[in-house]
Amino acid sequence: MSEPYPRPDPMGADDARFWSYVAEGELRIERCADCATYRHPPRPVCAACGSDVVDWVAVSGRGEVWARTVIHPPTLPAFAARTPYAAVVVRLVEGVFMVGNVVDRDPGDVVVGMPVEVCITEVEPGFRLPLFRAADAGERRQPEDPSSSRRETPRRVTRDATTRDA
Ligand SMILES: [Zn+2]
User: Fold this and answer.
1) Is residue 54 part of a domain?
2) Mean pLDDT of 40-69
3) Contact by Cβ (8 Å): 37, 47
């Protein structure tokens, strides 16, 4: 039997906001409101232009496996019963990288370049993680439809003293 998953331990307002969206079943990524550069992991200032004004944009969740490895024992107790499993770095189509697992393939079948899509999964009651599953390559290569209902109005956040990271 597996031990409980380690829980996210946000170090700032940006981390906390990312995980609050995941808890709602949404994958939202920070995008600079001034120069439109995506950034992840969440952080308070844009590395491209220095702006601290941010939109939290609902993203496609689609991308490809950029790097992978298979985890075998010994490992941390919380993960020991889950071995072997594939740990991956996924490059989303928006250009940012996320670390996760591909949950619907044997670890040996997870390869670099494989198209994947996020599946926000309730791994324990009340606790969701952004994991990945294999995506259909043909569907993934279709051009973006700008009228897609997936697009939502970004939520703009203007920072003030109460939300700025310490
Ligand atoms: Zn910027």
Assistant:
1) yes
2) 97
3) yes
Put the strands of the sheet holding 97-101 in their side by side order.
Answer: 97-101, 85-92, 62-71, 115-124, 127-134
Cα of 154 from ligand 1 centre, angstroms: 15
Range of the domain at 103: 13-157
Q: How far is the CA of 163 from the centre of ligand 1 (A)?
A: 19
Domain membership flag for residue 45? yes
The count of structural domains within the chain is: 1
The model's pTM: 0.79
Q: pLDDT band at residue 3, thresholds of 50, 70 and 90?
A: confident
CA of 55 to the centre of ligand 1 (A): 11
Which pLDDT score is estimated for 157? 59
Residue 5 lies in a domain: no
Residue 108 resides in a domain: yes
